Amino acid sequence: MGNQDNFKEFDFEGEENLRAIAEADKFNEWMYQQVVPHCTGKILEIGSGIGNISYFFDRDEMDIDLSDIREQYRSYLKKSFEKRAVLDMDIVADGFIDLHGDKLGTYDAVFALNVVEHIKDDKLAIENMIKLLKPGGKIIILVPAYQWLYNGFDVALEHFKRYTKSRLLGIFPTRGVKLIRSWYFNFAGIFGWFLVGSVMKKKLIPESNMKLYNVLTPIFKIADKVVLNKMGLSVIAVYQKD
Questions:
Q1: Contact status, residue 36 vs residue 56, Cβ threshold 8 Å
Q2: What are phi and psi of 237, to 5 degrees?
Q3: 3-state class (DSSP) for residue 235
Q4: 9 backbone dihedrals φ, ψ, rounded to 5°
Q5: What is the pLDDT along the chain (242 residues), one digit of tens a residue?
Q6: What HEC string does 156-170 produce?
Q7: Within a domain: residue 227?
């Protein structure tokens, strides 16, 4: 399974958490709004899961291909998004260039939300995503922020680590791409993640929590503006290929 050392064929905890997060449509749309301004033309989503973010690209009739490493999710995506290509893609697979030669240099935007933290060789993941881009194409990466927030959720979800802005920027190549923007996202989420994961020691995100989170999303958007996106549960970077 390439370099994804702890890859497991059926991801129970991951699917349960994705289904809980699916309840939070306002929150998912807020995350979509972080990414979509940088997405034009032909788009590829790395690690689509059950399509929580894919839904919005599909709804807005954007030209997007979906992908996932697990058949568990690919079969779900094929049923939910019949008109979309669903690729079997391990972004750190041995022989990646040979496996996906027809896709190299073909996308205007490639994004991965909450994916890179699952991959031990995160630098290789970024390098391979960049190879999929056309010149001038953009790569958008969202990962969980702050190692001090690492808790049972991260263990259950098989996260190798959490990132700061500088740590995320540090896994991008120093040549061939330029930084467009980086920022933190979802400041209010820090408190929920710490309370439920670190204090209450939960391993799965409770669906009821996500429903409440959904209701409060408009307030959380304001909180991000108040802190000027200088802190957040996630950190995002956008680079452009030369």
A1: yes
A2: -135, 140
A3: strand
A4: -65, -45
A5: 344 544 555 565 666 777 777 778 999 999 999 999 999 999 999 999 999 999 999 999 999 999 999 998 999 999 999 999 999 999 999 999 999 999 999 999 999 999 999 999 999 999 999 999 999 999 999 999 999 999 988 888 889 999 999 999 999 999 999 999 999 999 999 998 988 877 888 766 777 778 888 999 999 999 999 999 999 999 999 999 99
A6: HCCCCCCECHHHHHC
A7: yes
Decide if 6 is inside a domain. no
Q: Which two tokens stand for residue 22?
A: 């699916």
What is the Cα–Cα distance from 106 to 131, expressed in whole angstroms?
A: 9
The domain total for the chain is 1
Whether 7 is covered by a domain: the verdict is no
Range of the domain at 154: 12-241
CATH assignment of the domain containing 231: 3.40.50.150
End-to-end Cα distance, the chain: 31
Alpha-helical segments (H) within 132-227 = 152-156, 165-169, 189-193, 207-226
